[in-house]
Amino acid sequence: MQWQGISEFVAVAETKSFTLAAKQLSISTAQVSRQINQLESRLSVKLFYRTTRKVSLTDIGKSYYQQCRAILDALNTAEQTVTNLHHTPQGQLKLSAPIAYGESHLAPLINDFCLLYPELTVELWLTNRTVDLTDEKVDLSIRLGSLIDSTMMAKKLRDRNLFLCASPDYLAKYSTPQTLAELKRHNCLLGSLDHWRFQNRKLTVHGSLKCNNGYALLDAALKGIGIVQLPDYYVQPYLQSGELIALLPSHQPKDEGIWAIYPHNRHLPSKVRLLLDYLDQYLMQR
């Protein structure tokens, strides 16, 4: 009796809709409503304010939701622990990553991971927006650079370096900048921001091309259009071949992290733990 209506109550509290809760639980809206009514009757309290347009928790409902959510999380953790001990990874694994980095580095590794664990269904979303892991039910997200404070767990997979560089043809024509101040006289190829980052400062720069795609900026730099600042995984081969020249190395910013972000869970599902270990091992080689 004490368990009846708990799942329905939590689903309504989180979706703020009886209809959406029913869809999430794969039952009828009438069944959700009936379970909530019985739960309120058993507890002798009102858990929700209901109008034709809105469903919201009462103060008592908010307190009860926190307790019920913790109970369901503990139950899920217990079930995942048992599953991890006795089964190979299976089910759906959903992750997200920035577009360019995902295309060049992550997607090939994910394809290899799929070959290792064919019982998994992997859903990889490449997007440059910040994904809400909880709302969008994402198991793991790859983030680049500095992290904002959150309740999520974070694991650094590797470092990335930003390089300022230009082609030999561009430098022969317009000279090689020796100071940050001299960059204001050069054609600076910009991404989505209007500044570049250096060791101790940000510098606003200007140029004839702005594009939110690193490969497009790389192509422009290789063709001698201007100077570019890009992460190592774009430019390293061209720096080694001499097609690009690194500039102002003494001002190069500190290394940044490439991170795996995932929800806090004392017992990670085996599919997430295995993917984390796999990426940790193989991203270091790229």
Q: How would you portray this structure in words?
A:
The chain has 286 residues and is of the alpha/beta class. It folds into three domains: 6-85, Winged helix-like DNA-binding domain superfamily/Winged helix DNA-binding domain (Arc Repressor Mutant, subunit A, Orthogonal Bundle), CATH 1.10.10.10; 90-154 and 260-285, D-Maltodextrin-Binding Protein, domain 2 (3-Layer(aba) Sandwich); 162-251, 3-Layer(aba) Sandwich (D-Maltodextrin-Binding Protein, domain 2), CATH 3.40.190. Helix content is 41%, strand content 21%. Strands 4-3-5-13-6 form a five-stranded mixed β-sheet, covered by helices on one side. The longest helix has 28 residues, at 59-86.
| Count of discrete alpha- or pi-helical segments spanning 4 or more residues | 9
CATH topology of the largest domain: D-Maltodextrin-Binding Protein, domain 2
Major β-sheet, in short? Answer: 5 strands, mixed
Integer tally of domains: 3
Mean pLDDT: 89
> What characteristic shape results from the CA principal axes?
elongated
CATH superfamily label of the largest domain? Periplasmic binding protein-like II
Rg from alpha-carbon coordinates: 25 Å
Fraction of helical residues:
40-55%
The CATH architecture classification of the largest domain is 3-Layer(aba) Sandwich
What is the H-and-E element order? HHHEEHEHEEEEHEEEHEHEEH
Distance between the termini: 55 Å
Q: What percentage of amino acids are in beta strands?
A: 15-25%
Strands of the largest sheet, in order across it?
4-3-5-13-6
Strand count: 13
Uncertain runs: none
